[in-house]
Amino acid sequence: MPHRNIDEQTIRRVRGEYHEMPGLRLTVGEASRLWHMAPDACETLLSALVEQRMLIRTKKGAFVAPDA
Q: Is the predicted pLDDT of residue 15 greater than 60, yes or no?
Protein backbone atom coordinates (compact mmCIF):
# COMPACT_ATOMS: atom_id res chain seq x y z
CA MET A 1 0.00 0.00 0.00
CA PRO A 2 1.55 3.36 -0.95
CA HIS A 3 2.24 5.65 1.98
CA ARG A 4 1.50 9.33 1.45
CA ASN A 5 3.32 10.38 -1.73
CA ILE A 6 5.56 7.30 -2.06
CA ASP A 7 4.68 5.03 -4.96
CA GLU A 8 4.56 1.26 -4.69
CA GLN A 9 7.46 0.78 -7.10
CA THR A 10 9.75 2.84 -4.86
CA ILE A 11 8.66 0.89 -1.80
CA ARG A 12 9.39 -2.41 -3.59
CA ARG A 13 12.80 -1.13 -4.70
CA VAL A 14 13.80 -0.12 -1.16
CA ARG A 15 12.53 -3.39 0.28
CA GLY A 16 14.55 -5.23 -2.37
CA GLU A 17 17.72 -3.30 -1.55
CA TYR A 18 17.46 -4.25 2.12
CA HIS A 19 16.70 -7.85 1.19
CA GLU A 20 19.60 -8.14 -1.28
CA MET A 21 22.13 -6.45 1.01
CA PRO A 22 21.92 -7.96 4.49
CA GLY A 23 23.39 -5.57 7.00
CA LEU A 24 22.48 -2.47 4.98
CA ARG A 25 22.39 0.41 7.46
CA LEU A 26 21.42 3.85 6.22
CA THR A 27 20.53 7.18 7.77
CA VAL A 28 17.86 9.30 6.14
CA GLY A 29 20.56 11.46 4.54
CA GLU A 30 22.44 8.48 3.14
CA ALA A 31 19.26 6.84 1.85
CA SER A 32 18.13 10.12 0.32
CA ARG A 33 21.36 10.43 -1.66
CA LEU A 34 21.44 6.73 -2.61
CA TRP A 35 17.87 6.67 -3.92
CA HIS A 36 17.80 10.26 -5.22
CA MET A 37 14.84 11.20 -3.03
CA ALA A 38 14.03 14.32 -1.06
CA PRO A 39 14.96 13.79 2.61
CA ASP A 40 11.37 14.27 3.82
CA ALA A 41 10.06 11.71 1.31
CA CYS A 42 12.83 9.31 2.31
CA GLU A 43 11.98 9.78 6.01
CA THR A 44 8.33 9.02 5.22
CA LEU A 45 9.24 5.88 3.29
CA LEU A 46 11.67 4.54 5.89
CA SER A 47 9.26 5.32 8.74
CA ALA A 48 6.50 3.44 6.89
CA LEU A 49 8.79 0.42 6.63
CA VAL A 50 9.45 0.67 10.37
CA GLU A 51 5.68 0.70 10.97
CA GLN A 52 5.45 -2.44 8.80
CA ARG A 53 8.24 -3.99 10.92
CA MET A 54 10.40 -4.48 7.86
CA LEU A 55 13.03 -2.11 9.30
CA ILE A 56 14.05 -0.84 12.70
CA ARG A 57 15.61 2.51 13.55
CA THR A 58 18.77 2.36 15.64
CA LYS A 59 19.53 4.72 18.51
CA LYS A 60 21.91 6.56 16.17
CA GLY A 61 19.15 7.07 13.58
CA ALA A 62 20.12 4.46 11.00
CA PHE A 63 17.55 2.18 9.40
CA VAL A 64 18.37 -1.53 9.28
CA ALA A 65 16.54 -4.82 8.80
CA PRO A 66 15.80 -6.42 12.20
CA ASP A 67 17.59 -9.66 11.33
CA ALA A 68 20.79 -7.89 10.25
A: yes
